[in-house]
Amino acid sequence: MTAGAHSESWDDEYWREALLFSVLTLLCLSIVMALSIDGPELGLYGALRAKALRLVPGLLALFIAIRVPLQKLRRLILPCFWISVLLCLVPLFQAHEVKGAVRWIRIFGASFQPVELLKPLCVFATAEVLDRRRDSIDSFWHGVGPALMIPASAAGALLMQPDVGHAFFVLVIGGGMLLIGGMRIRHSLGLGLGMAAVAGLVLWFVFPHTRNRIHEYLSAKPGFQIGLALDAVANGGIWGSGVGSGMFQHVPEARNDFVLAVLGNEFGLIGSLLVLFCFVLLFVAAVKISIRSESRWTLLIGFGLAIMLVIQASLNMLGVTYTIPEKGIDLPFLSSGGTNLVFALASIGILVNISNDSGRESDEDIGG
């Protein structure tokens, strides 16, 4: 084994472990927050049991995703994506409305959000079309257009629920992957400006609740929920008020969208920076793994999953701190949503899978 080959193998292992370290740290924080938020109501055992019911399926999804043969499943990607788009329309016929939207599928007492399945499949499907159209990516109609149809279709299905936040989110993921896939700068500028204009008009004139959020944000007068979240973060100071202090545990949606506010109160600025550091490390590790992947297809998937996880975290953190209008999107690995946790951990498993394949290929080259 040459020194260069040994260094490459070590780098693969280093970034894989960095990725898993960041996720493990976030999961440990999520367990502490679950005990802090749910403990007073459910008791220690009840809070742990509720967390385990969400965490165990997520870890199972992680281990399955590490072992699944990605290349052998390629032919199933596009059909599975279109099925997930149709699943996002199913809640429209079940009429289980929550806060003016229908986003959950309920079967035999269980429920899940199909958007959580749609997001990673959108990454896979966009990567698949970009890889197939690699020779025509310079053409808008023959290269960019077909790839853009994937996130645009996903966004259209989500707008019907309506889920404006996630519709915007999948378009951002698609745009990022198109740039990585080689889209021309002039195409990206034109597309970005055109989509921004259309999105602004649609959000303002079609969705009143979104218009009200934007108006509230521009007025610089945070509503009740955001106001409590900002107070929670401010009262945490640098070191925090202590785990289980109880002062801000009843912030609306403390378990989901606003878990960072409670964490910032109890762990202070140090805890919030630790969360930020974990997501930065996750992104860097995912990018390093993607760059070293064995094919253009897995490179695009790795980048897409990195964008998906980190942009989602960014939208949540920026919303909680009132830097942007609050979007109602979970914080990956920390929010209590079971569906989100399962597919977030499955995405990490896919990244580890890509890293393992890259490492095996390097070993085979060395042996040859």
Could you give the topology of this structure?
Blueprint: H1 3-67, H2 74-87, H3 91-94, E1 105-107, E2 110-112, H4 114-132, H5 140-159, H6 164-180, H7 185-205, H8 208-218, H9 224-236, H10 259-291, H11 296-320, H12 338-367
Antiparallel strand pairs: 1-2
Question: Keywords for this structure?
Answer:
368 residues; mainly alpha; two-stranded antiparallel sheet; 12 helices; disordered C terminus
Task: Tell me what you see in this structure.
- The protein is 74% helix and 2% strand.
- The chain has twelve helices and two strands, in the order H-H-H-E-E-H-H-H-H-H-H-H-H-H.
- It has helices at residues 3-67, 74-87, 91-94, 114-132, 140-159, 164-180, 185-205, 208-218, 224-236, 259-291, 296-320, 338-367, and strands at 105-107, 110-112.
- Strands 1-2 form a two-stranded antiparallel ribbon.
- Strand 1 and strand 2 form a beta hairpin.
- Helix 1 (3-67) runs antiparallel to helix 12.
- The longest helix has 65 residues, at 3-67.
- The radius of gyration is 21 Å and the shape is globular.
Overall shape: it is globular
Radius of gyration: 21 Å
| Percent of residues in β-strands | under 5%
User: Count the strands?
Assistant: 2
Number of domains as seen in the coordinates? 1
Distance between the ends: 11 Å
**Helix-residue proportion:** over 70%
Overall pLDDT metric: 84
